[in-house]
From TrEMBL:
Domain Acyl-CoA oxidase/dehydrogenase middle: 121-212
Species for this entry: Mobiluncus mulieris
Family: Belongs to the acyl-CoA dehydrogenase family.
Lineage of source species: Bacteria, Bacillati, Actinomycetota, Actinomycetes, Actinomycetales
UniProt GO MF annotations: acyl-CoA dehydrogenase activity; flavin adenine dinucleotide binding
Name of the protein in its database record: Crotonobetainyl-CoA dehydrogenase
Source species, domain of life: Bacteria
Amino acid sequence: MEFKLSDEQQLLADSFTELMESRDWETYFRECDDTRTYPIEWTSALCELGFDRILLPEEYDGYGLDWVTMAAAYEALGRAGGPTYLLYQLPGLESIMREGNQKQRDAVLKYLGTGEQIYNYAMTEPSAGSSWDDMKTTYTRRDGKIYLNGHKTFQTSSMRVPYMIVMARNSEDMSVYTEWFVDMSKHGVTREPLHKLGLRMDSLAELYFDNVELDEDDLFGKEGNAFMRGVQDFDQERWLVALTNYGTAYCAFEDAAKYANQRIQGGKPIAAHQLIQLKFADMIVAITNMRNMLYEIAWKHDNGTLGRGDCSMAKYYCSHAASMVVDNALQVLSGVGIAGEHRVQRFYRDLRVDRVSGGTDEMMILTAGKQALRKYR
């Protein structure tokens, strides 16, 4: 496996690095984090450089590139402190092109290049998280229309997006799970914001659907195919979360390394003390492992050999490894990290959320463990 990027991939990654160096983005990120505001200035600048076109097929005015290129983009942005957790839906436009009808594709593509949040998936309910057996949201056909009723919770991005893809059960046959492409401006839709520990630049909400009237062409994909569609796209989401974890850890490591070489205690930089060196040894091992794992997964995907448990393994490992790195970085930064407004504080909060969002640790363990054992049956 070749780890060297092509000239095209390196140029794209370098363009994102140059963007991150073009202004004091951290002050802007801090303001957005404090006010729980989506950083549209940053995301629109990214999309002007083509971030949302990387995986989009060429027939939809995309670049039609691969996961390795996306990994390089995420690495460049994360290493420079970018909140890449905001970007998960932008690479996912390919899913809409694959599953959606022309009306839905057109609705999404009109936002291409803007950096705006466009859509997300609504699955989780108060009684249905990792298991959907107790999902209570239903759809009912009546007089040529479809009526959606139910309650979704912990829905990321849902205070801002114009569309949500809502999973519901057929009220006449509860074994049938189907997704619907819902215009969130429709009558009967209610959004109630939720506050959270980290990832504050992205919204979180409770969603209520009270006899929301839909048409047959609001069906997303095929009726009864919600599970299969979800399984197909979960891998990409989990891999992107792991990439965010890696980039965040890389940034925290470099911030701490620079500080450790400048901070003098006992007449020498703290980097000269063995206990500090131990922390950096642990950090660089974790960062190296994360990078190797994530690029290998990208290479396997691009060559058609991705395993069912690979992305779950990456999300589980990287969320924990990155948390260790950021915790050590915060310890090295000491008072500067704890008492000031250092970005590693933001990283510390954000990373803890990633062990829950996009699939809990426990579900990642079950998926990765089951797949690891499968070939030895």
